[in-house]
Amino acid sequence: MVSQNFTIHPIGQGLFYTGEIKLNDRPVFKMIFDCGSVSKGANQEPLLYRNTHFSGSDKELDLLVISHFDADHVNQIKTVVDNDVKIKKLVMPFVTFEERLFLALKHIAQQGFDEGTVNFIINPLSALGANLGDDGEVFIVTSRDGPIPGIEGDNEDREKIPEGRFVFKFSNSKDLTDKEASNLGLAYSGKKLQKAADTDKGYTVSSVSTNVMEFLFYRKNIGINEAEFFEIVKEIFFDQYNIDTTKASNFINEQVVDVVKNIKSAPEIQFIFEEAFKKIDSKKLNFPVSTISNLNTTALCMLHRNLKALYRLSGVRDEDLRFYNFYDYSYCNLIQKTGTLRQEINYCSRRFYHYNFLKHLEKLSFPNVLLTSDSFLKEETDVTALVEKYKHHIDAFWMFQVPHHGSKKNSDKHLFSQIPYRKFNFINYGLNNRDNHPDDEVLLDLFATGHYKNFIPANQFQGLSFGFRF
User: Fold this and answer.
1) What is the 3-state secondary structure of the chain?
2) Is pLDDT at 402 greater than 80 in this prediction?
């Protein structure tokens, strides 16, 4: 018997997304995509997940994906892994030290100093060092022109699946050189860092080399002007606080954390940003001079999709896949939280077809999800680039995440019109958040493009769990 479950956790203004595969009720693969929130009481859901999924001797997290380093996406990761959880594979985007420094300063200016979060943003590998263990692998995803390849070439070996955990790997990855790691501020003693392009597929693989899931990433490069702004911010910061740049990157990181501990007020940081604005043509930047909250940093997108080999584990023959009634075994449960009470109820009895019968019978759709995190996908060029990257897989997902908590600065009808009709959509946000997400304009654009009726809200009181068992 095989089962698969994905959960959009009720965590408020942030994101906590998890997935699991079980074989005969035994976990063989666990994954997390982001884990953070700035809503009150946000650590309850990560604590519950840790206590239920990493109890006893099973303390392995097979895949952790960090989309970007905003606090509301990373500040609860340590909560989940704090009980000696071992991270087997860590995937994160190519994010420079300069950009992470900016994000740390922005976090302090907006949220105040939190040592754990700031240290994680500045030096994530150091923060997770003990959890990565001796055999943990770190993959840095870079951007490369061109679409992700289609389904050809999938390795779907038909040998019997033995007992044992599934593993995550990339179809192609290379060692990150010491110089590249140092330039990223990611020098990590004793660990081999690897890089993979976003045209290289990630796979969940059985122990007999059978690919059962695909992970398809998209990393948009930050703009040249934004990169220049980050560099100027770093230079001003280093000069103002006498950071010794002759040291190795890990010592520089420690100096930075020590300095920001003593920053007493947001105006100190605002002064740094104002000075940086004076040294760059702000008209070329993708955010207003008057604010730092809308800086066009980019986040890692990820589409996870099942391959036929996963269904073979339950004895479904290839010739039956086209007509198999998968919906009889599918479920979609609404998670509701009231005080300390957390319950799951059947959300919808409609048939969640695993196949997209409307167009391509060979493409499995449920319960595949395209996660966009906080990506900026509003400009026509950005939407075109996303569609081009996923053009071979644009029908292969059932659920789509509306970017950045439904901010009108990140998406509109230009994006939604490219999402195939009948796809479900979710927006993760915190009720009564300071940015008033989701914006009314976004909701109206979802309605105008025919997606609003399939819209699912996820906040601190409501989440969603979906998958199949057979």
Assistant:
1) CEEEEEEECCCCCEEEEEEEEEECCEEEEEEEEEEEECCCCCCHHHHHHHHHHCCCCCCEECEEECCCCCHHHHCCHHHHHCCCCEECEEEEECCCHHHHHHHHHHHHHHHCCCHHHHHHHHCHHHHCHHHHCCCCEEEEEECCCCCCCCCCCCCCCCCCCCCCCCEEEECCCEECCHHHHHHCCCCCCCCCEEEEECCCCEEEECCCCCEEEEEEEECCCCCHHHHHHHHHHHHHHHHHCCCCCCCCHHHHHHHHHHHHHCCCCHHHHHHHHHHHHHCCCHHHCCCCCCCCCCCCCCCCEEEEEECHHHHHCCCCCHHHHCCCCHHHHEEEEEEEEECCEEEEEECCCCCCCCECCCCCCCCECCCCEEECCCCCCCCHHHHHHHHHHCCCCCCCCCEEECCHHHCCCCCCHHHHCCCCCCCEEEEECCCCCCCCCCCHHHHHHHHHCCCHHHEEEECCCEEEEEEEEC
2) yes
